[in-house]
Amino acid sequence: MGFNVLFLNKIATAHQFSCFFLPIPSHRIYYLRRLMKEIVVSGIRPTGFLHLGNYFGALRNYVRMQEAYNCYFFVADWHSLTTHLDTSGLQASVHRVLAENIACGLDPDKVALYVQSDVPEIAELYLYLNMLAYKGELEKTPTFKDKVRMQPDNVNAGLLTYPVLMAADILIHRAVKVPVGKDQEQHLEMARNFATRFNNRYGEVLPLPQAFNFGNELVKIMGLDGMGKMSKSENANATLYLADEDELIRKKIMKAKTDSGPTEPNSAKPDYIQNLFTLMQLVSVPAVVEKFETDFNNCSIRYGDMKKQLAEDMALFMKPIREKAQAIQNDKAYLSKIIRQGADKARASAAETLQLVRKAVGVNYV
Ligand code: TYM
Question: Does the N-terminal or the C-terminal CB of the chain have fewer CB atoms within 10 Å?
Fold first, then answer.
């Protein structure tokens, strides 16, 4: 792999300079450059409004990766069917997630931005991988156990094999990096296990993907009530949605859980306070964060002031995203174009992998 990249780099560089002398079509150079880039895949379920956890765990990384990597980002509509049987709002949700992806800075001309169900090759790979996934391990997956607790009347097979479909999403493009939040770490480990089993049984076809975050540690943004992770479908008052208006952002942040403050200098921060600092680091200038860090460390912090500052900085940060997303969501012709364009790019890549997979499995008969 290292050799291939080096070799392609040399060809591309040679092509670049030889362009002055030889008529080499620019699409060839573009294609070579794409081949040299590492492949990245990630997805978001259209199960509600996107929130700051999605932004800082996933979207922010997507935007930063789009130049240097060959990126495939998608809306995981099949995954949403495992929990959301009512599909009356699905189209609007899918459109909103696409619009929010673009509003956060994704450029659909630079990446493949698509809808999962537009790529039927994923379903075929899911089928092969299902033969390599075992009931016992799927039942032990923490997210499956959570879902069983939350929807005891609908423990469907799709829910059980959720990690297999997720592995298919990733492996269909032979991705090596997967920008996700901390909550997806276990699913990535399972994807590596399925890929390893496939390779051991049928021959080396699938690279092993890794969860990725710029700045190494995977991110987990907690709800403002300090009760578990910020989530699309639980406790709307403790969740900051990208679509929230300024006033609502202020109101939610001013209600965030705090306490009477530290009594010992340089104490450890409780997790709900650390979460406020994490959010502040994400949206405020470093001098502001430092000021409140110092106040915390010498026990003079006033959480009311900190929340007021955070609320203002957050409102400023979210406003352009909200407004852009709204405009895109209303432009149905543009969204249709993006969806078709994304599907074409994703299917071209998926078809290549599937050809290798079918050959390796032995299901090619002509
Ligand atoms: P989903 O839709 O729940 O979340 C989308 C992305 O947002 C991240 N995230 C968070 N990060 C930090 N703090 C939080 N509070 C928080 N909440 C959500 C998630 O980690 C995720 O990166 N199974 C996936 C969707 C999926 C997928 C895939 C992802 C389907 N196939 C293939 C990557 C690769 C999910 O439910 O994400």
Answer: C
